[in-house]
């Protein structure tokens, strides 16, 4: 019975205490979902920046103005929920830089789109890498906690248990006691 109590205690300790890697992964996933939802919610305002035109239809001379509006909307609506604001600010800066190159005629619209997509992919890649590093860090910390708990329980000894059995024969009662260590 005492072994069962120890096993239940170990199970509860290991299940309840060291779960920060899983919690971080859940939080990171939720944050990516919030960013996606914020981006969708910002779409109507982003479309207003283009004054009803597709980005490819915006004159080169107005393209930087369009991109500044676009980035302002994203800064207000998306940036507050982004996992890594520093990385997303790089995306916005790259778009502005590429918009300037496009408006000057140094790159065409397809190059602008391609460079902007590459900046966004770099954001996702670096963000994912940061998430993975954090999850690995927390998993190692969880393992350290589990090992510490296991070492503590290994040194934990149950007190000896004494069992007494009695039986009667006629007028006499005989009792025997047995002590066990678990």
**What does the radius of gyration come to?**
32 Å
Q: Shape from CA axes?
A: rod-shaped
Tell me about the biggest sheet? Answer: 2 strands, antiparallel
Number of helices: 5
The average pLDDT value, as a whole number, equals: 83
Elements, N to C (H/E) = HHHHHEE
- Major beta sheet, strand line-up: 1-2
Helix percentage range: over 70%
Structural class: mainly alpha
Distance between the termini: 9 Å
What fraction of the residues are assigned to beta strands by DSSP? 5-15%
Low-pLDDT stretches are 1-15
Describe this structure in words.
Helix content is 71%, strand content 10%. With 182 residues, it is mainly alpha-helical. Strands 1-2 form a two-stranded antiparallel sheet. Helix 2 runs antiparallel to helix 3 and helix 2 (20-49) packs antiparallel against helix 5 (109-154). The longest helix has 46 residues, at 109-154. The N and C termini lie close together (9 Å).
How do the strands and helices of this protein lay out in sequence?
Blueprint: H1 2-17, H2 20-49, H3 60-77, H4 85-103, H5 109-154, E1 161-169, E2 172-180
Antiparallel strand pairs: 1-2
Helix pairs in contact: 1-5, 2-3, 2-5, 3-4, 4-5
What's this entry about, in short?
The protein has 182 residues and is mainly α. It has helices spanning 2-17, 20-49, 60-77, 85-103, 109-154, and strands at residues 161-169, 172-180.
């Amino acid at each position: 019975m005492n072994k069962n109590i120890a096993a239940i205690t170990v199970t509860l300790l290991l299940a309840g205490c060291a779960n920060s890697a899983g919690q971080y992964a859940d939080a990171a996933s939720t944050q990516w979902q919030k960013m996606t939802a914020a981006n969708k919610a910002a779409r109507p305002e982003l479309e207003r920046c283009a004054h009803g035109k597709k980005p490819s239809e915006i004159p080169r001379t107005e393209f930087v103005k369009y991109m500044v509006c676009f980035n302002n909307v994203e800064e207000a609506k998306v940036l507050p929920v982004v996992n890594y604001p520093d990385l997303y600010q790089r995306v916005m800066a790259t778009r502005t830089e590429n918009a300037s190159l496009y408006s000057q005629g140094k790159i065409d619209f397809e190059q602008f789109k391609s460079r902007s997509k590459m900046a966004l992919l770099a954001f996702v890649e670096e963000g994912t890498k940061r998430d993975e590093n954090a999850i690995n860090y927390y998993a190692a910390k969880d393992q350290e906690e589990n090992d510490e708990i296991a070492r503590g329980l290994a040194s934990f000894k149950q007190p000896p248990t004494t069992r007494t059995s009695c039986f009667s024969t006629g007028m006499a009662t005989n009792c025997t006691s047995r002590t066990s260590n678990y």
